[in-house]
Automatic annotation (TrEMBL):
<dbReference type="GO" id="GO:0009165">
    <property type="term" value="P:nucleotide biosynthetic process"/>
</dbReference>
<keyword id="KW-0479">Metal-binding</keyword>
<dbReference type="Pfam" id="PF00383">
    <property type="entry name" value="dCMP_cyt_deam_1"/>
</dbReference>
<comment type="similarity">
    <text>Belongs to the cytidine and deoxycytidylate deaminase family.</text>
</comment>
<protein>
    <recommendedName>
        <fullName>Deoxycytidylate deaminase</fullName>
        <ecNumber>3.5.4.12</ecNumber>
    </recommendedName>
</protein>
<feature type="domain" description="CMP/dCMP-type deaminase">
    <location>
        <begin position="20"/>
        <end position="157"/>
    </location>
</feature>
<dbReference type="InterPro" id="IPR016192">
    <property type="entry name" value="APOBEC/CMP_deaminase_Zn-bd"/>
</dbReference>
<keyword id="KW-0862">Zinc</keyword>
<comment type="function">
    <text>Catalyzes the deamination of dCMP to dUMP, providing the nucleoside monophosphate substrate for the thymidylate synthase/TYMS. Also, part of a nucleotide salvage pathway that eliminates epigenetically modified 5-hydroxymethyl-dCMP (hmdCMP) in a two-step process entailing deamination to cytotoxic 5-hydroxymethyl-dUMP (hmdUMP), followed by its hydrolysis into 5-hydroxymethyluracil (hmU) and 2-deoxy-D-ribose 5-phosphate (deoxyribosephosphate). Catalyzes the first step in that pathway, the deamination of 5-hydroxymethyl-dCMP (hmdCMP).</text>
</comment>
<dbReference type="GO" id="GO:0005737">
    <property type="term" value="C:cytoplasm"/>
</dbReference>
<dbReference type="InterPro" id="IPR035105">
    <property type="entry name" value="Deoxycytidylate_deaminase_dom"/>
</dbReference>
<keyword id="KW-0545">Nucleotide biosynthesis</keyword>
<dbReference type="GO" id="GO:0008270">
    <property type="term" value="F:zinc ion binding"/>
</dbReference>
<dbReference type="InterPro" id="IPR015517">
    <property type="entry name" value="dCMP_deaminase-rel"/>
</dbReference>
<dbReference type="GO" id="GO:0004132">
    <property type="term" value="F:dCMP deaminase activity"/>
</dbReference>
<keyword id="KW-0378">Hydrolase</keyword>
<dbReference type="InterPro" id="IPR002125">
    <property type="entry name" value="CMP_dCMP_dom"/>
</dbReference>
C-alpha cells in the first residue's frame, strides 16, 4: 500500500531549506527596516498573532513631518539638532500600523532590544513576548530601564538565534528556467492522445 501511495505522489519531495516561522517573521522585520531613511540605524519590527502578521513598522519621522527638514544626526551640541526628539521607533510604528483590532497577547519580532519608551508602548498594547536579535545597547540606561519594565509587566523577552546569517531575495528566481523544475511524465496511452496529455500537463506545470 505504501509503495502505491509513493508511486501516486511521485518522487519529488518538499524543500528542506524553506524559511521556518520565526526566521520568516524576523526577516520581515529586517526587510521592513530597508524602508527607513535613517542613515545610521535601520530598524524594523513585525507583530505576530497565531502565526499571522498583524503589524509591521520601521524607524521614521512622524506622519506629515518633512524628513528633509528634520535632523538625522546622532550627535550635536544642541539635542534638538539630533534625530532623537523626533524619530518614531519601529516598535511604535508597528503597533500603530496594526491591521487587527488590537495586538493583545501578540509576539513582536524586532532587530534591537526595545528602549524604555518602546517598552511602555509594548506593555500598554498588551504584547506578551518580544523576540529581538541584537542587544548591543544592553548597558545603556534606556535598555536597563526597559528590561526592568518588561520584567515587571511579565513580558517575555528572548534573543533570536538565526539558523542562517543572511537571506537573499532574488527577483530573477521566478523566471528560473531550470529544466529539472519542469514536469516529465510517461503514459501508457499511445499516439496523439499521449502527446496531448503530456503537453497539457507540461504547460500547466510551467505556469505555476
Amino acid at each position: 500500500m505504501d509503495e502505491v501511495k509513493q508511486q501516486k505522489r511521485g518522487t519529488t519531495k518538499k524543500r528542506d531549506d524553506y524559511l521556518e516561522g520565526p526566521e520568516y517573521f524576523m526577516a520581515v522585520a529586517f526587510l521592513s527596516a530597508q524602508r527607513s531613511k535613517d542613515p545610521s540605524s535601520q530598524v524594523g519590527a513585525c507583530i505576530v498573532k497565531e502565526n499571522k502578521i498583524v503589524g509591521i513598522g520601521y524607524n521614521r519621522m512622524p506622519n506629515g513631518c518633512d524628513d528633509d527638514l528634520l535632523p538625522w544626526s546622532r550627535c550635536a551640541e544642541d539635542r534638538l539638532d539630533t534625530k532623537y526628539p523626533y524619530v518614531c521607533h519601529a516598535e511604535l510604528n508597528a503597533i500603530m500600523n496594526k491591521n487587527s483590532a488590537d495586538v493583545k497577547d501578540c509576539t513582536m519580532y524586532v532587530a534591537l532590544f526595545p528602549c524604555n519608551e518602546c517598552a511602555k508602548l509594548i506593555i500598554q498594547a498588551g504584547i506578551r513576548e518580544v523576540i529581538y536579535l541584537s542587544d548591543k545597547y544592553h548597558d545603556t540606561l534606556e535598555v536597563v530601564a526597559s528590561r526592568r519594565l518588561l520584567d515587571m509587566a511579565g513580558v517575555k523577552c528572548k534573543q533570536f538565534e538565526p539558523k542562517r546569517t543572511e537571506i537573499v531575495i532574488n527577483f530573477n528566481s521566478i523566471n528560473d528556467n531550470n529544466p529539472q523544475k519542469r514536469c516529465r511524465t510517461s503514459s501508457p496511452v499511445g499516439g496523439a492522445a499521449a502527446a496531448a496529455a503530456s503537453a497539457a500537463q507540461s504547460d500547466d506545470c510551467d505556469r505555476k
